[in-house]
Amino acid sequence: MEYIQSFLATPVWQDKTVGDFLSVDFLASFFGSVLAAIAILIIGWTVAAWFGSRVRKIGTAQKHLDDTLFNFLGSIVRYIILGFTILIVLNTFGVQTTSVVAAVGAAGLAIGLALQGTLSNVAAGVMLIMFRPLKIGDFVSVAGKMGTVKDVTLNYTELADVGNVQIIIPNSKVWGDVIDNYSVYPTRRAEWTFGVGYGANLKQAEDVIRDTILSDARAHSEPAPFVQVNALNESSVDFLVRVWCDSGDLFQFQADMKRQVKEALDVAGVEIPFPTRTIVQAAV
């Protein structure tokens, strides 16, 4: 009995003994705090998810607003609410949150020095989201990769290339490199080079090329199309052709016209040259 009494009288923390921690009042208070903390965490997590979702939906509900920006703002709101939730939970257990914030700040400084590369990606992600040189759905070329933007997070930018392969690019490379955005402007200029033989009627060839391309509904008459002889090669006279079209039509328009112009030149009897080679066998 004396051993038990001595054990219960053993000081543990802040003048409290083992017996104090095993008392009914302490256990009731402790488990009450645990239950309150669990309830606060559940409520805080639910509220954070709801507010984050609501902010993201603002971007999707309004077509003139940028989804990327509101996805970022939704994540920020969610993390802020979760941060306050953790502080409230610590207060429930009697922890002085002022000292916790100071400790987190010091730890954040140390972690920031150790993770400079990661933080540079975060800083670049903030710049990308604020200035929006690209956004979800844009077709871009950046850091030597080309594809459709699927997501812009604080750490990386996700593209899907023309073969629908996922490409992950760190934001520091995206922000620090040249970005070719093919989706910003509504129109783009298609360009071809068509070669005809030296014996061909150049005026006839020019008319066939011009009429074939401009008869397609995707071709724009303004700005004025450009169809002129551009080069005199060894076996061909080359026409350089430039015609404007809607940005979304460019790739298929260019592909279709290559075949249609070739077939139209054949029907008109315009010679299309191809490389030839004469082999002379020396006498033995």
Beta strand count: 10
Q: What is the overall pLDDT average?
A: 80
CATH topology of the largest domain: Helix Hairpins
Please tally the helical runs, counting DSSP H or I stretches of 4 or more residues: 9
Largest sheet properties:
5 strands, antiparallel
Report the sheet-strand fraction.
15-25%
Strand and helix order: HEEHHHHHEEEEHEEHEEH
State the low-pLDDT regions, or none: none
- Report the structural category: alpha+beta
Task: Sum this structure up briefly.
The protein is an alpha+beta fold and 284 residues long. It has helices at residues 2-8, 18-21, 24-61, 67-92, 97-114, 116-131, 171-175, 202-214, 250-267; strands at residues 11-13, 16-17, 139-142, 145-152, 156-160, 166-170, 179-181, 187-196, 226-232, 237-246.
Which labels suit this protein?
284 residues, alpha+beta, Helix Hairpins, SH3 type barrels, Alpha-Beta Plaits, 3 domains, three-stranded antiparallel beta sheet
Describe this protein's structure:
By secondary structure, the protein is α+β, with helices and mostly antiparallel strands. It has 3 domains: 2-114, Helix Hairpins (Orthogonal Bundle); 134-181, SH3 type barrels, CATH 2.30.30; 187-267, Alpha-Beta Plaits, CATH 3.30.70.100. 51% of the residues lie in helices and 20% in strands. It has helices spanning 2-8, 18-21, 24-61, 67-92, 97-114, 116-131, 171-175, 202-214, 250-267, and strands spanning 11-13, 16-17, 139-142, 145-152, 156-160, 166-170, 179-181, 187-196, 226-232, 237-246. The strands form 3 sheets. It has a 5-stranded antiparallel sheet with strand order 6-5-4-3-7. Strands 8-10-9 form a 3-stranded antiparallel sheet, covered by helices on one side. Helix 8 packs across helix 9. The longest helix has 38 residues, at 24-61.
